[in-house]
Amino acid sequence: MTQKFIYAILTLISVISYGQVQLSMKPDKTDYNGREIVNLTIVLELNGNNLEQKSKIMLPDLSKFNMIGSGSFNQIVNDSETNTAIDQYITRIALEPKQKGKIRIGSVLVNINNKIYKTEPFDIFIKDIEKKPIANIANDVYLNMEIEDREVYQDQPTIAVLRVYSRNIDNLRKVKNIKLPQQENLNVHPISLKRSEIDPSGYANMASQVLAVFMVFPNESGYVEVPSVSASVNTFSTKNKIASNKVKLNVKKLPEGSPESFKDAVGNFKVDIYCSPKEKIEAKKPVNVTVKVSGEGNLADMSIPKIEESPDYEVFAPKITSNVNAGLTGMKGEILAKYVLIPKKAGDLIVRTESFAFFNPAEKEYVNLGQEKLGLKAFSHDQVLEARSTVEKVNDYTNTLLETVDSPVLKTTSFKVKEKSKFNWNVLFVNIAILIGLFLAYMLFKYWQKKQLIIKEKSTPKPLGSVAETEREIRESLKTDISDYFAYLENLKISGDYPKFFETFEEMDAEVRSQYFQSSKQDFKVFLERHNGSSVAESYQELLQKVQIEKYSPITSEDSLNDLLKDIVKLYSVISK
Asked: Where are the transmembrane segments (predicted)?
């Protein structure tokens, strides 16, 4: 009797605990017009302290919708009838239908105390979908060119910053093909074309991002207008052009009293001339001389001093090389002009550069560096020979002896190979015949070896495996190299091609499902639960939900996509073992 009483009590407790969990999903209505938003409300009620939610709420397959947005919150509601507190977890989802007709929405699942609760599926009806007019995204994207220092000297740089503004953060990544301004009365040099972090609270509650930073060098005085910076806003269907504002600069004329050697150099510079020959300079033979201009300013656009002509030497056009980067007050680095000089006679000679002067805007004065000089001493051919060391003379004498004198032992009268008057064709034909014979022998050996292998396989009966083994062999033959998909998804993530990323994931998922002879995602989930366990099946369902949420999210960050890719690699590596 006692045992029956205990059994009845336990049965009553189980019935009460079963009723402590309520899960429901309801739409706001069942019939929708065109592209009307479908609002789903999911409510999970937990009544009891011993209830523990083991998993997140798992959504059904919503691939026939575009997810507009989602949100959730929880609250505690007091039940007046039972005088108990009920925990409510409410989730709302806004969906945009992709097709018309009757659409079935599946069950929502949740794991409470290792027991699965689910809602009943239901149908909604979508009437004819009206085509939306294509919105002109360019009207919501603005470029702004900012120049703080608008009063500069002629050929003095000023920094320009290009920003993009939009109310929709997703539109910022669609701005491409930035073209900096080009105009005869100014020179433009980019400093950085790397995009900055997005500022979500920019001007007039619009998100903003720095697209480019560049230097502007006006080369004439007066009011100079910097033209607009153009760019394109690329979508899947259209390509719109946008332009920034124009900025006027007040370019001050350089002060009077410039030196005669001043041309167009503005900044702070230094001139050097040097020569580093490996051996003594010989008259009527070329020698390399380098003129280096270093400093910071309009270094990339100014004229550098040349080497003056002289009756003592002949000079040729230089080869210009530059190593210039953006600095604080201009382009910073050095420019090298490498000349080739040929001294016309032996003796001392002086190589002079043209006079060089520049305007220093920091000091507001001209600096005249004058001419730079390089003293050289050219030797005649006889003097070069006499200046050689004993070892060099011995080596030169030995080389001359070996090239010109007959030796009865070495027989080195000539280092030239004598050309044969007639080609021996017989040797060529014999070598070709030997190669053909070796090739035929190799092919006969491979044929014999293959034939023996076939005979051995026929003589040995192959055991018949079970149905599971046969299915496993077929799967192995159809197995996809999943690592190729992982590498491709990583490249798409780095390049920022997010639509292609999700398209490739769907293709990979279909390939893996076909490998296990599963056509739908729901059947594949059941297959995973049966063969790999419930944890892998739940991870697969959660991953599909994450992909759908990230795919239709208005903001896709590189960090969230990186986390998503890690989950994909981890799960599909387990599935494809």
From this structure: 423-445
pLDDT digits (tens, 9 = 90+) for 145-182: 999 888 999 889 999 999 988 888 888 888 888 888 88
* Dist. CA 374–CA 284, nearest whole Å: 18
Provide the β-strand partners of residue 438: none
For residue 482, give the nearest of 515, 451, 459 by alpha carbon. 515
CA-wise closest residue to 306 among 315, 296, 298, 294 = 315
Is residue 251 helix, strand or coil?
A: strand
Sign of CA dihedral 162, 167, 170, 176: negative
The C-alpha atoms of residue 198 and residue 186 are separated, in whole angstroms, by: 30
Both tokens of residue 62?
A: 């919503």
Could you tell me the pTM of the whole model? 0.45
Question: Is the C-alpha dihedral spanning 233, 234, 240, 241 positive or negative?
Answer: positive
Query: 458 CB contacts (<8 Å, ≥6 apart)?
Result: none
Q: Which tens digit of pLDDT belongs to each residue from 367-416? A: 999 999 988 888 887 777 776 666 666 666 566 656 666 555 444 444 44
What are 561's two structure tokens?
Answer: 């996509």
DSSP secondary structure string for all residues of 392-428 = HHHHHHHHHHHHHS--TTT--S--SPPPPSS--HHHH
In the block, residue with structure tokens 């990583």:
490
Polymer length in residues for the chain: 577
pLDDT in tens, 545-561: 888 877 777 667 777 78
